[in-house]
Structures are given as C-alpha cells and as structure tokens.
Amino acid sequence: MRRRGPSGRPPVRLLDLTRPEASAFLDQWRRRRARSTAAAERAVRPILRALREEGDRALLAWARRLDGARLTAATVRVRPGEFAAARRAVPREAAAALRLAAARIEAFHRRALRESWLATEPGVTVGVLTRPLASVGVYVPGGKAAYPSSVLMMAIPAAVAGVPRVAMVTPVGRDGRVPPAVLLAAALTGVREVYKVGGPQAIAALAYGTAAVPKVEKIVGPGNLYVSAAKALVAGEVGIDMVAGPTEIVVVADGSASPPYVAADLLSQAEHDESASALLLTPSRPFAEAVAGALTAQLAALPRRAVAAASLARWGALCLTADLGQALEVANALAPEHLELCVAKPWAHLEAVRNAGAIFLGQYTPETLGDYVAGPSHVLPTGGRARFASPLSVEDFQKRSSVIAATAAGLRRLGRPAMALAALEGLQGHREAVRIRLQA
Length: 440
Prior knowledge:
CATH topology of the largest domain: Rossmann fold
Number of helices: 17
Distance between the termini: 88 Å
Oligomer: single chain
Number of domains: 3
C-alpha cells in the first residue's frame, strides 16, 4: 500500500509506462518550456534594448525595479573591503569545504586541458592553435539561495584555461550585499571583478557593455527563465555556453537500492524550484511504492517542502517500465541533466547510456556529490539538450584556430587535387590561386 501525504494524496504521481496513455505526461515534460520561453523572450527584449541604448542608466533602473537593489555606478562593483569582510564571515568548516571543492574541481579540469598541436608530413604541416578567450562573464544565480559552488564550477575552468579577465555578476536585494560565501568563492578562484546585478539586465550589460560593466566575449552560467531568454537573445553578439532550463533528475532503479536513498535524491532536485523535475524509472511496482512512502516522510521534514511539493506535483513522477531495458530507453529519450543508475551493477549498464548531462553510478553516488565536490562542473545541459550538448568544461573557455603550412613541394603534392575540387564546385578563382603557384 502506498503511503499518502497529509492531504490523503501521494506526493507524486505513479505512471505505468507500459500503457499508451502514460506517454502524454512525458510528452508534456519534453515540451514544458516552449510556451514560457517565448513569453520570457517578449518580456526580456525591452530590457536588452534599454541597456544597449542607455547603458548604466538602464542597468541601475532595472536592477532597482526587478531586485529592489539601490545601486549607483560607483557601488555596483564589489569593493576590496567586501572581500575581506566575506572571508571573516564564512564559518571555518564551510570555508574549508569550499577550498576542498576548489582543489578537486581544478584537478579535474587540468586533466581535460587542450593544448596546441602540430602534425608534419612531407611538405605540409597542419595543426590546432589553442588560445584562451580574452574575457568571460560568469552569471551566478541568487535570490532564493546563495550558490558559491556555482562560482567554483565556472570560474575555475576559466582560470585553468588561462582566461585573463573573468567578470562575475550576481543579483542583490535592497541591502546591496553579495552573500559572503559567494564572495569567498570568487576570491578563491582569483575573481576580483564582481558586479551586484542579476537578471536579464546583467546579461545585457555583459553582452553590450556599459561604463560600469565592460563587455565580455562569452557569458556562462545558469539562471531563471528570463536570464536564459536573455542569453539566447544576445547569442551571436557574444558567445554563450548553453540555454539552461529548470534542473532535472532521472533515477533508473531496479529495486536493489534503498528507497529512502532514491527519495532523498529526487527531493534534492525538487527543492530547487517549482519548475524542477524529478523522475524515477523502475520495473518494480513495490519499489516505486516504497519510494512514494519515503518521499512522504522526508517531504514533511524538508525546510523547502512547499517548493519541493509543488515541483513533484507538476513535474515529478514514479514511472513503471516493462523492464530495465525500457527504463534506460526512456532515460535516453529524455536526455536528462542528471541521471542516476541506482541498480545492482551500474557499470554494466553505463554503455547503454547515450544521453545525459552527468551520470551517477550506484546508490552511494548521490547527485549532491556532483553539485559540490566530485570535480566535474555542475553546469549541465537541461531540457533534453544532453542529446547534443555537454557539461561546462575548460574547452568552453578556449578557442581554436586551424594551422596550415605548405612548402613548394607540399603544394605540388596537394595542389592538383585541390584544383580538381575547385573546378568541381565551379570556383575558378580558387583553382587559379593554386595553378599560378604551380606554374611559377
């Protein structure tokens, strides 16, 4: 029997995916942002236009209107004394945890650092010249919570890549203060350029530049629907990492894991906001019902239970599949941000995973490890974009140029095939650029 919440209803729907009617929920799940994204873009366009035309005046006006922040051009940037105060304000244990996380994140990204390379054959050298971006803007969410971990996850790979200028933006309220832990995280990564603005106005300032906030070459970082819409609209003016959506987790379980463990992992994402999604895929009905009971018990004690309950009611589900194979097929079709394989032999099923932002193997690997201390960035593709996108990495802060060099002998060896292809495409000028050299 399923345990039920105080209202008499279970905290999350139970769907049987072996029945055709159950697919309607998953179809809605895949399309859940399309309509709201269009509305957000309409709301954001006037803000972007104002920032482009009026600069700081619009930036400060929108910061006050949307966040209640009473800032001036002189106070919008964090001052050195605020960093020093932040160091003193963060508890010793929390500061030590941030330093541990920072060391692990840096070690992970140093392994992935791409270097320039050249390959030489007779008469021809080809290769790749790798250079860091000149400047990057890091958007750190705020408002409902402080996210010092996001500072580490973005600023550290930028530093490893060698980006000389990293500018951070984050929203503040009426008190005009950036949370001390966020400033400490910035200091640990070497970021000293921090601005007290968030929302689409911050994205616009980074993209177009104002007197107070110089423009950058690329903007990275998660945010709410309006921040994501702003990033999508300025793409091309600057580079962006991805258009992020609400956080999501899919847990594939065979019934061997602890139901309370799985329930806790579902809640760890549901508590983010009302648009977050938490799904379980399992062939075991008794296990799904046990997870429902554990959700009820744990939800009652969760400080953010109202947010988590709303998330579970809207976008959460415990899904019954015909077998573990179907569970993995559905997971691949959803391409979730976070995918947990809470099965008896997780490594045996890793090869079957094609689409996921981050994969967590076994019941002793909660998604929380990835959020904070494992090492890989927690900035991940959402909304099914893991079908074609990847986690934020050191490569996002580098750019590559092709290198090609030929001697006269090399041109003689490759010139005629190049001329033949130019003729095939009807580009006589291309062909002539080779011919004139071969006949010299």
